[in-house]
Amino acid sequence: MVKSELFKWQTSWCGDSGMSDAALVIYFAAPTVMRDHDVSELLRKRYPQARQIGCSSGGEIHDAEVLDDSISGVALRFERAEFDIASANVCFGEDRNTGIELASQLLRDDLKWVFVLSDGIKVNGSELVRGFAEVFPDNVLLTGGLAGGSPGLGESYVGLDGPPRALQVLALGVYGSGVHCSSGSMGGWQVFGPPRRITRSEGNILYELDGAPALDLYKHYLGAEAANLPGSALLYPLAIWAPGQDKQDVVRTISGVDEANKSLIFTGDVPEGYSAKLMSASFAQLARGAELSAEQAQVSKDHQEVLAILVSCIGRKLLMGQMVADEVEAVKDVLPSETSITGFYSYGEIAPHGFTGNCQLHNQTMTITTISVSYTHLRAHETPEHL
């Protein structure tokens, strides 16, 4: 149903292409590479027939490696399965409507999976996901991420069949009864300090916690690290939950600060009336969270040709430093041994919540999507060689 080939580029291509007839390329690239090279043209020369979707990254995942200053991804060929792509420009305050528009373009009875890549700076990811969720039925898996980059970069980029650019959202839809998809999303972070109440907020902007300026409180906890905001905030995310629903908490990471009104800007909603706690983690806790995410994204033993797309948060990479490959290796140890693994470090992860099953924007999680083929769904005269 789906054949895949992993690839990576580090000043030059690593290995020869064996799939010149690939129909689709999904790629992730460092902003420095996008600045210095024509990424779309590099991919077109290697995969001349393929459509291209991709985004900027805070780190590229290739098999069990975490790379920097590279292009990494997967080339795909579809047989008895189909795909379509929808895209839109980011319009301020229209994120929910953008999600509705793109979802409506992709919706069909045989739609199995939608993968979203979005600008990671100017988009309210919660509203974007809310729009998609309003259109899709429960049997459509929705995953993806917000394009990443270097902390403090100020821009992120999404590419569709051409040079990546800012302020773009795209969605890939995959169709076909033989395609099987699953997902997992876990963090590994631990809350600390007293619970606070969000007493004033608007969308993804947090003004007050317990009636006090949110930025002042955050600076108090960060101490000397406050001088490095907003980058240092990636190491101290915020867990938020509705009253009485602490098991349904989601994690939010700061994407910017406003010194004038002492507010914090997040990539997703921080609703008034919610409770909030600061979070921290150790290397071992984050690796364990990644392992649990892989366990959630279960793959049946009769499924083959397994592809796993990992979307992890840039904050996890900053905290783990040179040990960041530990979380990817933890995932690889759980998934079937021949699984092809690709992915990137993001400003936000899109996946169903591990407790409720409702798709949401997450921060500081390791999110995994697995796409596989079950040979039990083939017609009696077909064999794996026919795929």
Give a structural overview:
- The chain is α+β, with helices and mostly antiparallel strands and 387 residues long.
- The protein contains 8 helices and 25 strands.
- The protein has helices spanning 31-36, 39-46, 95-106, 125-135, 214-222, 283-296, 314-320, 325-334; strands spanning 2-9, 24-29, 51-56, 60-62, 65-67, 71-78, 82-89, 111-118, 141-146, 158-160, 168-175, 179-186, 190-202, 205-209, 212-213, 238-241, 250-252, 254-258, 263-266, 275-280, 303-313, 340-346, 348-352, 359-362, 366-374.
- Strands 13, 14, 15, 16, 17, 18, 19 and 20 form an 8-stranded antiparallel β-sheet that branches. The chain has a 6-stranded mixed β-sheet with strand order 5-4-22-21-25-12. A 6-stranded mixed β-sheet has the order 7-11-8-9-23-24, with helices on one face.
- α3 packs parallel to α4 (125-135) and α6 packs parallel to α8.
- It starts with a strand and ends in a 13-residue tail after the last strand.
- Mean pLDDT is 89; it is low at 377-387.
Task: Tag the structure with descriptive keywords.
387 residues; alpha+beta; 25 strands; 6-stranded mixed β-sheet; 8-stranded antiparallel β-sheet; single chain
